[in-house]
Amino acid sequence: MKARRGRTPEGTEAPRVIVVGAGFGGLAAVAELAHRGARVMLIDRNVYSTFQPLLYQVATAGLNPGDVAYPIRAFVRRHRARFRLGRLTGVDAAARRVSLADSGQYEYDYLILATGVCAAYYGVRGAAEHTLGLYTRHDAIRLRDRVLARLERLDIDHTKDVNITVVGGGATGVELAGALAELRSTALYAAFPEVSKASVHIRVMEMAPTLLAPFAEPLRAYTCEQLRERGVDVCLSTQISEVTSDCVLLTNGKDVESDITVWAAGVAASPDVADWGLPQGRGGRIMVGPDLRVHGQDRIFAVGDIAAIDGQALPQLAQPAIQMGRHAARQVAALVAGEPTAGFRYHDRGIMATIGRRSAVVQLPRGLRIRGTSAWLAWLALHLVTLLGNRNRLSAMLNLSWRYVSWGHGGGIIVGDDFPDEARRVGMHPSAPA
Predict the structure, then answer these.
(1) CB neighbours of 271 closer than 8 A, spacing ≥ 6?
(2) What are 57-86's pLDDT values in tens digits?
(3) Is 16-45+86-117+269-336's fold the same as 127-265+350-425's?
(4) Does the domain made of 16-45+86-117+269-336 have the CATH classification 3.40.50.300?
(5) H or E element: which one contains 172?
(6) Where in the sequence numbering do the catalytic residues fall?
(7) CB burial class (10 A; 0-12, 13-18, 19+) of residue 171?
């Protein structure tokens, strides 16, 4: 395919490619396909693409939800593609057709699945019912509202502390725990002057003996030390047997009080994937070959977290998804041109995680490791640059600057609308019993 949209080099109609999912992998595939002249339709259940690495900032009242959401229609218009709002419910590989929840059906020549994943609870009783996730914009807003509702209740009644538990010591869990600690230590007094910091307890629980397992040991130790210095109770080698509405039960028989429990301990495919008739592996992820084509399929690809590649265990980060999306698009071009496909090779560009203001860890290829203020500035710059849209970049920069400069000196927190469901949950809503 050449770059002119709608025609192949031979003058025939360009292939119809459907991309499902507007995350990092899906958007990368759309951009690459549009560049190569394909007729592309992007399908997603939301009208916006979410910048997931900054969801924890929304959840801790540091960013507006709009700062991490970019309108999909603006993206597809720029790349001369189409957008269809909908939820994928079926894939008919023989007929080359997909079905949506609203009964819509669309035919394709090639299909790229980039739908992402959701939380994996590993059989822990009550986890699905009594924990909050942090995978979508809605998750972040709900968590923010729950935290603020609990703090409002604490401001009224000082007799009961607030206990927040983050389950999972990966990047999401560490970043969320660090941001919650900052919310308590620097913003609490300005917003809730009657609430004592000692009344808000934050802990992170990890089943493994260390946090941030993919990082080098010195960076893991630094992360643990920094969280503890910020007042976070770090619980390593801790296994959970059950979660209830007000506590976490450990396998050693101990009960830990927890008013808010956030699950950041792993991912699995959405239950919807089982209806697509495609081979699934561990965690329900779709099994793909080296070229990212789904096992047994010549025209269906899967990229990003939803894909499980033969012989490759990739980190569930933005870069692998972006590279996979581009690679799948290039393989479509190769197939259209009658050329053989190539295997996917991930180019490691490093990993990073932030712990809080002036504290982060960065691990780059060839053993280069950075921590502290320089790592934090690198993290901040990268995330601002990679946000979609100049408005989002400017708004996020202003809000994060306000958070890190003004909190503790009269700076406020970002709140949303009234949160009746969360207020009712903690007994504050007018309809709740006195």
Answers:
(1) 284
(2) 999 988 899 999 999 999 999 999 999 999
(3) yes
(4) no
(5) helix 171-182
(6) 175
(7) buried
What string of DSSP letters covers 241-298?
A: EEE-SSEEEETTS-EEE-SEEEE-S-EE--GGGGGGT--B-GGGPEEE-TTSBBTT-S
Express each pLDDT in 284-343 by its tens digit.
Answer: 999 999 999 999 999 999 999 999 998 788 888 899 999 999 999 999 999 999 999 999
Least confident range of 117-126, 184-193, 355-364: 184-193
CB atoms under 10 Å from CB of 217, counted, come to: 8
Mark residue 349 as left, alpha or beta (left: phi above 0; alpha: psi -120 to 50; beta: remaining): alpha
Secondary structure (DSSP) of 393-429: HHHHHHHHHHHHHHTTTT------S--HHHHHHTT-S
Rounded-to-integer distance, Cα 338 and Cα 334, Å: 6
Cβ proximity of 406 and 191 under 8 Å = no
HEC-encoded secondary structure of 203-218: EEECCCCCCCCCCCHH
> Residue 360: in which H helix or E strand, if any?
strand 359-363
CATH T-level topology, domain 127-265+350-425: FAD/NAD(P)-binding domain (3.50.50)
pTM of the model as a whole: 0.89
pLDDT tens string 301-316: 999 999 999 878 888 8
Q: Using CA atoms, how far apart are residues 160 and 188, in angstroms rounded to an integer?
A: 16
